[in-house]
Amino acid sequence: MLNTLSGRFLILTVIFVMVAEVLIFMPSVARFREDYLLARLERAQIASLALLADDMIEPELEAELLANAGVYNVVLRRDEIRQLMLSSPIPGEVSRSFDLRDASAWELMRDALGCLVDGRPQVIRVMGAPLRDGGELIEVTMDSGPLRAAMIDYGLRILLLSAVISIITAVLLFLAVRRLLVKPIKGVVGHIQNYAAAPEDARRIIRPTATVRELREAEESLKLLQTQLTQALRQKDRLAQLGGAMARVSHDLRNILTSAQLFTDRIEMSEDPAVQRMAPKLVNSITRAISLCENTLAFGRAEEPAPSLMLFNLSELTNEVLEAERLALDDHDVSLSEDIPASMTVRADSEQIYRALSNLIRNARQAIVATGQPGEINVAAHAEDEDWVITVSDTGPGLPPKAREHLFQAFQGGVRKGGSGLGLAIVAELVRGHGGKLRLSRSDDAGTCFEIRLPMGDVS
């Protein structure tokens, strides 16, 4: 019950109604006390009229009049004369006096609370204005016991009535909340569960029917989300099928191109000037096609495995990468250097970091070679408070603006002609696997610089 929305509304309603009733309890009891005392003054004034009609009345009649009025004596002031109209023996001294003529609401509530709290029998004096201009002041003495008993009885009836009102109000609100709020919410939850069972089925997308504006907006937002998700899942399936087809085509095409590459060796031996002029271009085209097929197959395989973290010397690893790249330089005037502290160790997967650096350096080398100008590639690293920072910079021509828009997206971030755009996508994936970031920190006419940030600590 307490874990349901309607149940909590029920309990809160009962509490709030009871709090409201408690707040009005004292004003109600104070008003009851004032009416009670005014009624005693009115009876006392009526009883005093008998004496005004006949100066001498029997003691038995006087006692009966005082008993009916519920007072011990009556004092009436008329024409500036204060006169004891009716009297009887008082059982004790007057403890307190109350003037109802100019009493404020705060004073009435204070006196009512005092009467409820103090249960001792007391004789009190009450003063008020006579009715119908029957004098200037009427004053009575009376016992506070009957007054307190009447106030307690009235208070209990008020509390009982409050409890009944609270229960009725809470039940009505409970039913209203279930009908107007809980039932529509359960309907939305049911739609979500139904959709989750088969998100590819467009028939399970919710159809907004709520009449409450907020619920209607929630249903429309859910419909938009489900529609987009269903479309994304369909597109994912199509891309997966297309990727499988591309992998098969790339595999077969690579085999065909490999065979064609073998035949180009014989073509290069031809003495025909035209063949000798065209053969290198054919060889380069076939080589690029084979490279594209191999990269596509590599990227289409399963996701990169989780990195195996271990401490290793970054300077030694970088030198291995640079030595491998120097073998591919041939006669090109490109210098490779590193600026890494000899004792610097990082905690990462050495094989994956090797691949990441190799891709970045190879891209830089190919960009410089394409210009036909000499250049330099530098790998530097340093440690910060929370990260290891590795930079790969070159003096190449920089990246064109179009290439920067989709730099780390596969098949879209290619820079050089014939490139697949997979190198940087693979590097970004390897760095993300370490919880790090790959970003382009600089690219202009003076060259390009990529920055790798590897976190030192584990994810908390």
From TrEMBL:
It catalyses: ATP + protein L-histidine = ADP + protein N-phospho-L-histidine. Gene3D superfamilies: 1.10.287.130, Histidine kinase-like ATPase, C-terminal domain (3.30.565.10). The keyword Cell inner membrane does not apply. The keyword Aminoacyl-tRNA synthetase does not apply. Keywords: ATP-binding, Coiled coil, Kinase, Membrane, Nucleotide-binding, Phosphoprotein, Transferase, Transmembrane, Transmembrane helix, Two-component regulatory system. Residues 248-458 form the Histidine kinase domain. It is an enzyme of class 2 (transferase). It comes from the Bacteria. GO terms for molecular function: ATP binding; phosphorelay sensor kinase activity. Residues 215-242 form a coiled coil. The chain crosses the membrane at residues 6-26, 158-177. Its EC number is 2.7.13.3. This is histidine kinase. It comes from Antarctobacter heliothermus.
